[in-house]
Amino acid sequence: MHESGIKGVMQGGTINDGTRDYQPLRSKQYDLKKLHITEMPITWSNCVIYYFNTGLGITAGYHRLWAHTSYKATLPLQIYLAAVGVGAAEGSIRWWSKGHRAHHRYTDTVKDPYSVRKGFIYAHIGWLVMKQNPKRIGRSDITDLNEDPIVVWQHVNYLKCVIFMALIFPTLVCGLGWGDWFGGFVYAGVLRATFVQQATFCINSLAHWLGDQPFDDRNSPRDNWITALQLQKKLDQKRSKLDWGVPLDQLPIIEWDDFVAQSKATDGTGRALVTVAGVVHDVTDFVKEHPGGKALISSAIGKDATAIFNGGVYLHSNAAHNLLSTMRVGVIRGGGEVEMWKRVHAEDKDKLMVRDSGGKPIVRAGDQPTRIGRERECATAA
């Protein structure tokens, strides 16, 4: 359209659509030459990029690094994860990890801070917006977090951090970068944080409500096609190559007094030994990495922790039993069922081994000797 035509269409800063009673919906100050927010796709790109960064801060930082201490991170990585994690506006590392540890320790009980037993909406977002009774929430050990300077600093300065990283930072990037201040605030700030939060909350609600429980149905967590897609054959192939520690029939038999003495030795030869279901485990290198904290696992050293491990303090998962099996170093004399199991394994090992679809021996979920909470068949009365 020629310039004269454009001037004919536009009169007095408004658009002449041919009607005499035309009332412009936009203000007179609106500049038609300026791109509208919906016509600036670069803001959407920034939104997606920052979404994955803040999501990584929650999953790799808040969850795996600090709540579960699954790995060790360098100082620059810790600072990065703490910075982008707070941008998700889900609380401080200390507060988030404390609640998550309590959730794992008291899953599906009244002490679970976001138990799905209290309702889907409560597990999804109700626990966050409703004030909970601090006396009802289960306690968890966070001494390691209280000694972490990054965690402490972020917790003390949380309000300033969350306002800057969740709203001001994305607004500055979009505004200074390409002049889209409003888009940076709305899309990369508010809406991006909302989507990150909903993705996290779905783990607390949908992941405990929809799906199957092919391996362990004692608690509410479930698997579904959205979160995991695996073929049984592939699982069997990987499982047959897993190392579950020294086989029971190859473990030495240890006297109880020797077990206690070695656990309490102060001459430098002592080890952090724990007995579960008659099997001795050396957890010396695992004490600092224990997700439940040092205090809990240290209290079981030199003792029979069968009841503690199987629900007395925390009902450990199949994964925990499998991990514990890699630490076994002996069998307590008089362990009864364990010694019998060891003897039978040595005499008729081939008949007892569970095999996968390819004929290789494997350990199925729940088959570790340390798990004693299973129902067993009993002989009927004569």
From TrEMBL:
Cofactor annotation: Fe(2+)
Matching SMART domains: Cyt-b5
Compartments, as annotated in UniProt: Membrane
Domain called Cytochrome b5 heme-binding: residue spans: 251-333
Entry keyword Iron: yes
Presence of the UniProt keyword Transcription regulation in the record: no
Swiss-Prot/TrEMBL keywords: Electron transport, Fatty acid biosynthesis, Fatty acid metabolism, Heme, Iron, Lipid biosynthesis, Lipid metabolism, Membrane, Metal-binding, Oxidoreductase, Transmembrane, Transmembrane helix, Transport
Gene Ontology biological process terms in this record: unsaturated fatty acid biosynthetic process
Membrane topology according to the record: Multi-pass membrane protein
Its EC number(s): 1.14.19.1
GO molecular function, one term: stearoyl-CoA 9-desaturase activity
Source species, domain of life: Eukaryota
GO CC terms, sorted: endoplasmic reticulum membrane
Transmembrane segments annotated in the record for this chain: none
Similarity-based family: Belongs to the fatty acid desaturase type 1 family.
Name of the protein: stearoyl-CoA 9-desaturase
Highest classification ranks of the organism: Eukaryota, Fungi, Dikarya, Ascomycota, Pezizomycotina
